[in-house]
Amino acid sequence: MRRGSIVQLVVLGILFGAGAAAVALLIPWLPDPASKQADRIDFVFWFVTAICIAIFALVAAVIVYAIFNFRAGPDDDEDGPPTHGNTSLEIVWTAVPAALVTAISIVSAVVLTQNEHLPSASASVSRAAQSSGTGLCKPRDADPLQPLVVCVVAQQYAWLFQYPAYRNATSATLRLPIDTTVQLQLQSRDVIHSFWVPEFGQKQDAVPGLLTKLVITPNRLGTFPVICTELCGLGHALMRSQTTVESKDEFLKWARSRGKGAAAGGGASAAAKTFVDNGCDGCHTFKPAGAKGTIGPDLDKLTEAAQKAGQPLEEFIRQSIVDPNAYIAPGYPKGVMPETFSSLPKQQLDALVTYLAGGSQ
Amino acid sequence: MSETVAGFHEHETEHAAPAEPPRGWRRLTAPGWLRVLWVTPLFFGIGAGLVVLIRWLEGWHPLWDGAVITTVELTTVPFGLLVGLGGFDYWYRYASGARTVPEDHSGHGARSWRDYFRINTDHKVIGIQYLVTTIVFFVIAGLLAMFMRAELARPGMQYVDNQTFNGLFSVHAALMIFLFVIPAFAGIGNYVIPLMIGAPDMAFPRLNALSFWLLPIAGVMMVSSFLAPGGPFAAGWTGYAPLSSTHQPIGAVFFNMGVQWAGASSIMTALNFLVTIITMRAPGMTFWRMPLLVWANFTTSLLVVIATPFIAGSQFFVMFDHIMHTDFFNEVAGGYPLGYQHIFWFYSHPAVYIMMLPGFGIASEVISVMARKPIFGYRLMALSLMAILVLGFSVWAHHMFVAGMAPWLRVPMMVTSMVIAVPTGIKVFSWLATLWDGRIHFETPMLFALGFVSMFVIGGLSGIYLAAVPIDIHTSDTYFVVAHIHYVLFGGSLFTIFAGIYFWFPKMTGRMYNEALGKLHFWLTFIGFNLTFFPMHYLGIQGMPRRVADYAPRFADLNLFISIASFGLGASTVVFVYNMITSWRFGAKAPANPWRSMTLEWQVSSPPPIFNFDEIPQVVGTPYEYGVPGARHGVFNGDRVQEEEEVHA
To answer: Cα–Cα 20 to 30 A to B647, which of B42, B263, B356, B437?
Structure first.
């Protein structure tokens, strides 16, 4: 190979490498990480990206060099030199990629182990709980924050988060204390769903009949989207919630008051609890419960909605809970609200209807 | 060449005298579309009658159950069509002990366009039947993608409802995979492989004809699911249970059964390729003298026959859960939803290589011929195909890193997925080395082949990200995956299919395609493709999940950009179809060997004689000896054909 051609090739390689590096660095590819796991995933991402930029630059340089330097003329009927192979070159391009993918595999495996690590004492407890129990999500006796266990219940098309260490406090949004290792234990009531918070970098399917687990250590305050990423039916795109990372004190205050609310009973507060425990606030706005969801119709405007539907208010509310597809508010898709609320005990249902009817007047 | 053409006419009179057309009422019983018209309703009646009879005997109500009848009819009606066309006539006589009709070869070759609409046993006719059919379904599936991009141009819902949107991407993927990429490669292989190995036809011509006719059946079935009550199947082409088994309208059965028909077609063709390649090579054509496209189809066929029964099984299980209330994937009754994914991906990962390896073969042919150099590292190229074949069966669970399967399985599956990059890398580097120091001619096939190499490298690199478990946990089921599979299947498979169609167009039609339009098609496709799919990487990493009709407002601008680019990409297909149709009718007559290739299919006239070779070629060397003075791949008796050509050149 001529000397000039080597120089040209190297220049092309540097140009393509610089171009690819610019694309990689100037575009903010990764979401701003909000968990220790995401930080480690980002490290693997950049490790792989560095290798990929090198390979891309090499391939692109050779192709472009060949296109410009080995172009046949219009009436050029000649053949190229009959090179059949080059054993040492073939060994190199077998061995070098093999070494690179080995390196990536090792880094990935190490990061995977770190990302799934639970504080040791509690890990043994949760193992014990699992082996003795039914395999379903359970509260634990040890320090509830090491790790914090949250049960995630997925159904078409809503998320529900339960905190077994806080008397099964229930919420339609996921609230987490900062700098605390959390173990999510996911279950599904119908089809496969998948829990993902892009800023946490962690994802796990919720499979009917299985209890799957995911470890997250949030390290940045803020509110982030919770997204279902496994196609779960016609409301898949709407199966969204939020997660809020707050200080430990704020979290404990909230969790304890939620847990207490669970113990109190009777009247409007029981209905308010039914409302929250079933995740209604995940999708609906309803001021008396402090709910701000926007996926479903605004429950502060139930009176108007009942008029539009031409039904008495309480009857309309009851029907909309137990048979949500009987009447669809204009502008909202059919079949998105779960039909499982028809199994609520009559007492709870009655209280809920009264509560909702009272709140909208 | 004039002599070859003369030979062509000789054959026509000698072997293929068209039989007397049947007259009177015999036209109704002779194989053909008239018979289809009454046999298909007959089979419909048999299917429906059986269901009603059994339900009546068992005392089940209602007697007429639409879902059950539909499911049964998806088996019986296609059989009616095949019987009507005459797909089983010969075997029926043989099996029933009647006297078989001596083969007069009247089912061979095509004299008018009508011959493409019947059972035809000529591999060249079947190859063209395959290609035209698959391009039709390619256009339909592309239009479905255009609908999707129209809906996705803005956040919120505009044109379709959620269920229809889910149906759009499900049918789009199912058609592209089962009715375009896989059978388009089968079509190219069908046409080229017997010619390449010096055989007069495939080993089992009647099976070949039958396996083609299963394909339009599967395609029509999948498309017509839009007409089923409740809409089309909407659980994605992956059809994960239990969403696909217990939460779908009856349209899902159209997918389950469509996959069976397409899969059966695939398996029959693969068996045919295997037997043809093993037993019908011309004298002197040792395995180490086979062109790489033959190697590629050999390994692909092995993949097909081993893997395809798994998807057939998985779809049957889902259908049984749906219609017969079995509980394979119903966890309440002890079923195991993840079992579906394991079985499904045990086919569908090898299927990725079923959709890649023939493309590797096409790229090898085109690059070697058009760079005027022997393929670099021929044996390693063939061996790396075999390595991919073996490794391809050990990586399926890398689709399931977040699925909740046994955690220990992830790292081993990551390692095998990484290792498969090594033989793939060998192929890419060998193509680059083949280009090096060549005399490169940039006709349309070469542009598509080079476009394939560069796009496939990007798809391969994003595959490394997805194989690394921690990154995959973040990116799986997002638009990053959508970008990756389109770089692999569009940038990879589709570019090589286009390369192959342009490359062998002169051989298939006897006419040259329009080079300017071909180049325009390439550049529109190449630019439109990158503008459409590259930004999807970013969307996915940032947080946009796949398979959603609605998305966060912050992704609106980029999605609008992608939609506009995708319409440009869609428009490029118009150029392609226009070029194919006009060139086929009015293009300049093609010489026997416009690319000055050494492989056997170019040593006969364009299009080839009905029985391919007037005399069996003798293979004397490897197929890529460009630049070696006096080298030959195949010689004919006294070398008359080649001398003719040299005179013409």
So the answer is: B437
Most A CBs within 10 A among B148, B368, B464, hence the mutation to make, goes to B464
How far apart CA A204 and CA A217 sit, in angstroms, is 15
Looking at the complex, does the CB of residue B414 fall below 8 Å from at least one CB of chain A? yes
For residues A126 and A248, membership in a common domain is answered with yes
Is a pLDDT exceeding 60 seen at residue A263? no
Structural domain boundaries in chain B: 27-96, 122-600
Please check whether residue A259 lies inside any domain of the structure: no
Q: Which chain A residues touch B167 with a CB distance below 8 Å?
A: none
In a domain, residue A343? The reply is yes
Considering only residues A261 and B245, tell me which one the structure prediction assigns the higher pLDDT. Answer: B245
Residue B267, pLDDT above cutoff 60: yes
Domain count for chain A, please give it: 3
Looking up residue A132, the CATH number of its domain turns out to be: 2.60.40.420
A100 and A143 assigned to the same domain: no
pLDDT in tens, B144-165: 999 999 999 999 888 888 889 9
Q: How many CB pairs under 8 A join A and B?
A: 266
Question: Are A139 and A242 found together in one domain?
Answer: yes
The predicted model gives B351-364 an average pLDDT of 96
Is pLDDT at B535 greater than 90 in this prediction? Answer: yes
pLDDT score recorded for residue B29: 87
User: Do A300 and A342 share a domain, yes or no?
Assistant: yes
B277-288 tens-digit pLDDT: 999 999 999 999
pLDDT of the residue at A123: 45
A305: closest CA of chain B, how far (Å) = 22
Distance from CA of B420 to the nearest CA of A (A): 9
For an interface test with A, the pick among B402, B416, B622 (most A C-beta atoms closer than 10 Å) comes out as B402
| Higher pLDDT among residues A342 and A68, named by residue | A68
**Are A37 and A23 contained in the same domain?**
yes
Is A244's pLDDT higher than 50? Answer: yes
| Per-residue pLDDT, A326 | 86
Please check whether residue A74 lies inside any domain of the structure: no
Fold of the CATH domain B122-600: Cytochrome C Oxidase; Chain A (1.20.210)
CB contact under 8 A, B247 and A111: no
Q: Does B620 touch chain A (CB under 8 A)?
A: no
Chain A contact present for B404, CB below 8 A: yes
Q: Does any domain span residue A96?
A: yes
Predicted local confidence at residue A272, as pLDDT: 82
Q: Give the three-class secondary structure for B545.
A: strand
Same domain, A126 and A109: no
User: Does residue A156 share a domain with residue A56?
Assistant: no
Q: Tell me the residue range of the domain where A95 lies.
A: 3-68+88-115
Whole-number average pLDDT of chain B: 91
Shortest distance between the Cα of A351 and any Cα of chain B, in A, equals 31
Of the three residues A231, A254, A277, the one that is the final residue of a domain is A254
**Assembly ipTM:** 0.89
Are A243 and A299 within one domain?
no
Q: Are B337 and A201 in contact (CB < 8 Å)? A: no
Q: What value does the mean pLDDT take over residues B333-339?
A: 92
